[in-house]
Amino acid sequence: MINKYVSVPDFSADKSSVINYIFAFLFILLMAGAAVIFEDNEIILPEIAAMAVALWVYKTPEWVAQADKIFIVPSVTALIGFGINMLTISYTAKIGLVLLAMALMMNAMKFVFPPALATGFLPVVTNAHEWSFMISVVVTTALLMAAVKLYGFDKSSGRKPEFNQAALWIYTGITLLWTGLTLFFDISQFAVIPPLTVVLYESLKMKQYPVHMAIKQIIVLNLSITMAVLLWLFISNLLVLSFIFIILMYLLQAVFSVKIPAVYAFPFLVFVFPAESVLYLPVGSFLVSVFSFGVTFLIKKKLTI
């Protein structure tokens, strides 16, 4: 019996869903192809892979309801992160500044677009310095938004986004706490893993968050990055590797009967993280996910947010 708290992909989808999958996967491969053509891995945006599937295939109601925000919010948070990364301050300080800037911005807007949390952290985590990063964010999010508007996904969502201020500030608190712990234990490189930060916020918003949901998220997400790192060690062709990632992530979700867009983002971290850090991504992911989802489970058990 499938867990009632898990939204399951329709793997026996109708023709239109199959077409949407194809377009989403082609979009991801085009992004990877652009990185190959321009010889610039800063063009690769892991969260864009997650957004393509979430917006065009899953049609996540709260993500498509305000189509213009698909372009505006991630572009602004990316610019925030890109600008702060230029400062001559410590890595931990950059993470803290980006986090607080994004939280204040979204609180002022009374709107949280979860993928924008990842695009805000990404330039700091990957140490992006080229303007190709910002161009890639603007172009890809604009295309994602245009497709949502063109096919009317925003009009058919039927759900008005709700601003959950408590979830936003608890998310901020958990992230700050973990960042402080990584500084204390001298593992600051694991302060933030962008795809996990999106899942953390989404989990805080769930009405119910049972322990088996947390465990399933930890297993699926860590399998995702572990498989990606192992393949990265043996396959050097970026396009071939990207294609394999997409197929494997589709199958991984089918096996576990879950719908977690971040699963598609995770493998692409191997292209944008410093090479010396890639091997440690499975360890970092495990630590971050166990802490984040464990604390979320405890909070949801005690509080209604």
Please give a structural write-up.
The protein is mainly α and 305 residues long. The chain has one domain (15-303). The chain contains 15 helices and no strands. The chain has helices at 15-37, 46-56, 61-64, 67-85, 91-109, 115-125, 131-150, 165-184, 194-205, 211-234, 238-256, 262-265, 269-272, 275-278, 281-302. The longest helix is centred in the C-terminal third of the chain and has 24 residues, at 211-234. The chain is globular, with a radius of gyration of 18 Å. The protein starts with 14 loop residues before the first helix and ends with a helix.
Distance between the termini: 28 Å
Shape assignment = globular
Low-confidence stretches: 1-13
Q: Characterize the main sheet.
A: none
Q: Structural class, judged by helices and strands?
A: mainly alpha
Mean pLDDT: 91
Domains counted in the coordinates: how many? 1
Q: How many DSSP H or I helices?
A: 15
**Radius of gyration using CA atoms only:** 18 Å
* Helical coverage, percent range: over 70%
Q: What portion of residues belong to β-strands?
A: under 5%
Number of strands: 0
Q: Which H/E pattern describes the elements? A: HHHHHHHHHHHHHHH
Keywords: Membrane, Transmembrane, Transmembrane helix
Domain HPP transmembrane region: 18-149
Protein name: HPP transmembrane region domain-containing protein
InterPro entries: TM_HPP (IPR058581)
